[in-house]
Write a structure and sequence with these properties.
This protein is an alpha+beta fold. The protein has helices at residues 32-51, 58-73, 81-87, 91-102, 115-126, 175-178, 200-206, 212-219, 223-228, 295-308, 326-334, 378-388, 459-474, 492-510, and strands at 4-6, 133-136, 154-156, 165-170, 186-190, 193-194, 235-242, 245-253, 262-263, 266-267, 273-274, 276-278, 283-288, 313-317, 341-347, 350-355, 367-371, 393-396, 404-410, 416-426. It contains 14 helices and 20 strands. Strands 1, 2, 15, 16, 19 and 20 form a six-stranded mixed sheet that branches. Strands 3, 4, 5, 6, 7 and 8 form a six-stranded antiparallel sheet that branches. Strands 9, 12, 13, 14, 17 and 18 form a six-stranded mixed sheet that branches. Strand 7 (235-242) and strand 8 form a beta hairpin. Helix 1 (32-51) packs across helix 4 (91-102) and helix 2 (58-73) runs antiparallel to helix 3 (81-87).
Length: 511
Amino acid sequence: MRSAVIAVLVLSPHLAAGPAPAGKPRTEKPPPWADAYAQQVLSVVSQVSASYIRPVSRTYLLQSAVAGLYEAARQPLPPALAADLKTATSDEAIQKVLVQAREPLGNGQSLKDHEVLLASCRAMLRHLDPYSDVLLEAERKNVPWGDQPAGLGFELRENVGVGPLLIHRVLPGTPAQRAGLRPGDEITQVDKKALKGLNRDEVAGLLTPSTSPHLQALIDGKEAAAEAATGMPRVVTLQIARPGRKRWTVSLEYQERKPESVFGVQRRDDNSWEFLIDRERRIAHVRIEALNKGTANELAEVLERLQANRLGGLILDLRWSPGGFLDEATGIAGLFLGDKVIASKRGRTGAEKYHNTQARRYEKVPLVVLVNEQTSGGSELIAAALQDHKRAAVAGQRSHGKATVQQALYVDIPGASLKLTEGEFVRPSGKNLHRGPDSRPQDDWGIRPDTGLECRLSPQLTRELKEQWDLQTLRPGVDNKVLPMDDPKNDPQRQLALEYLLRRLRRSEAR
């Protein structure tokens, strides 16, 4: 389970001020915005220093943070500042140095509000590792799904209020997907009202269970009425434009359930998934998009239905899966293992072993795991556990090699949080899983396919396969259009896994 460190930071009112007079001792209190900056930065730095995967001094982090401040202000860093931070040992002394560093820069436009803290946090984390970073709300599009409902089932691209409102992402198993919407489609109207002049965030805020009166009031320029509008219908009608097709309308009903994260081969008429790739041998192909909240339970329910109909073999497809929640990764691996150690995690406080606690287990089903260069994080943990315990064969292409674990550090920056690397996973065999900056191809990192099951694809073919599988996932069940992935032979890595399972089943029958 992801851990979170909460930073309680208080922002004081921002007051306009210019540089402090030079050569005169200070007799008045520092401006509140300078004092607030010092408190905020020291709070974040202290927690990063205490929680980061490797020891890192507060002085180093403070120097990086202040360098980011001056970079944002486009001012040269005072030569003595690094030494002043190094000699300041108490929190009180550090805050004094930070105030003296912040105040001469004033409170101009580039340093107003939360921008100054954001610049310092970015500079500080930039000096750690590639996976520690500031995460903005607009950058959360590919973050694994949590407990929030699917809503209408799509996200919009940024248009800053002047361009067309295009769909950025359609979530599987949602009203938008069932209606046949795709990324790149343009929304021209909502409930028969044009959206000219509205930006993405304004429209996204309107496409909720409280839509029509709010939208009408906003379009009419009645902001007060828009704020007061409530009790809006849960069904929204959209007009959609797509190149090469006449404009059409769809009605979408708000969905409380989460999007799908477990996919099959192709959809049935009711939009549910068909998982069998070989009906005669009862071999199923199950794809995991990401380790979202509830993915392990979703997969367990699929396996239960398949097992009830004599499941003969399974291809567990983790290609393009970026990982996600730790408990989902251990839960999925545990579905196929006995009482085993799934992984170990190394951190500042020592090593921690993750044992199988999964109640439902499918230990006898013949299993192949598919991986590629985009298999990362918790998805690599799953593949490593199944490979090391000789529970599954691994096919495809060597995985990414990302085994670090991040925790969330919340700061008082609207729409932002910090990702901080606090641990690293190790395979059950004890071999390294993470690829560091100095790792060589011959070193232990990532997941290598088993002998005879490697199928390396060019980056272009890998991208094309991803696009084709995305189309397969988003095609509504009632759509009879034939797609490339309807034919198993069009995916060479999946075909290799299927042929391996068929050979294994034939050998088993021949005994």
